[in-house]
Amino acid sequence: MNEAETKRQYEFMQKAAEILKKKEEARGRKFSYFVQTFGCQMNERDSEKLAGILKKIGYEEAEKEEEADIVLYNTCTVRDNADQRVFGRLGVLKAIKKKNPDLIIGLCGCMMQEPTVIEKIRESYKHVNLIFGTHNLFKLAELLVSVYESDSQIIDIWKDTNEIIEDLPVERKFPFKSGVNIMFGCNNFCSYCIVPYVRGRERSREPKDIIREIENLVKDGVKEVMLLGQNVNSYGKGLEPKITFAELLEEVAKIDGLERIRFMSNHPKDLSDDLIRVMASNDKVCKHMHLALQSGSDRLLEKMNRHYTKEKYLELVKKMRTAMPDIAITTDIIVGFPGETKEDIDETIDIVKKAAFDGAFTFIYSKRTGTPAASMPDQCSEEFIKEQFDRVLETVQETSKEQAKRFEGRTVKVLVEAQNDKDPSMVTGRMSQNHTVHFKGSSDLIGSIVDVHLDECCGFYFMGTQV
Predict the structure, then answer these.
(1) Is the pLDDT of residue 1 over 60?
(2) What are the strands, taking DSSP E only, across 58-195?
(3) pTM assigned to the model
(4) Which of 188, 202, 293, 350 has the greatest count of CB atoms below 10 A from its CB?
């Protein structure tokens, strides 16, 4: 961790705060911010850091873009529809900026690491004030000072970095749970995935820094943490002394006051027997594993550069279910990868049935320029993709409903997360297995872990009664 850089950024926060105060005095009102996140839970955590810096500078949070004086979009580029949503919102913001010339529009995150995107924004979205990427989010205050002092578009994109800058302000979305980055970047280079190109190579945080952060979160009321990385199973490579993810998990579980631990994302090629042992032996570790499959076809898994086979994946599932009969296993599946055939889909459907997934995010393959898969021959037709996608989805829904039924009638511990958005007399929470549970209760239960009887399985959620 670079303490000098952290100190430097706090100095920029102070400078930005002084400039903002003068602006507010001139306008006779408080200025506000709006941060919108596109993408994964790592992006969600990054957005909490962005919000924390903005709050430290002196901005108040706005409920919607129209009310804000600075709008930040933290972008994702894993699939094309995320890109299109961002460009669509930029068109809306142009009209808002005409009404509020003080409005600062900023773009950051994975999408900004693509040169073609930067060029498009330069040419067609000149009303955007600030563009930065995934590697220098910590520089927000410094970049804002540049925006305040310049009339030109500020673009600051780093191709890669070895820096890990932490100990900056964070505005958490939930007071009782939090994400914690344990590593950054990815070394896997799956042939369809843009992430290693935009997030950079793997860098693991020192375990002592992770433990200290979680201890401070617990002191602040956090009961559940989500350990985050593009592939947490490979955590620790390059650190001295050597440490594995399983060993880190054991250390995190020793923290007094911490009640639940989750983690993602996981790559099958690095999932160890030690990790399964630690999960099974420690009640703090939630019994949920999200283990991306992508395809059940060995032929496609090789083309995807995934480094495991269908047989190896099913072997991992068997090990987990043997060690933890109540574990919920969820996955990701891609449909329409270049060259995919009906027979390949048959293999995927077969593994869905054999693995008996508790849930799956099923995606249509999204062609990402710059990845090996983008230039592969035999791109699938829309008609084929729709037909096969429906087949896979139907199988996933059948198996996940069947898996959920096994919990019906049990009493389980539920972390209450929110008031029910449809019925204010009810609250909503999550089981260790990550299933959603709705039950009668007041808002003062939010943030507590309570015993709930699961009265009825409704497919993808449960109706329950507090015991």
Answers:
(1) no
(2) 60-61, 70-75, 104-109, 130-132, 154-156, 177-181, 183-184
(3) 0.88
(4) 293
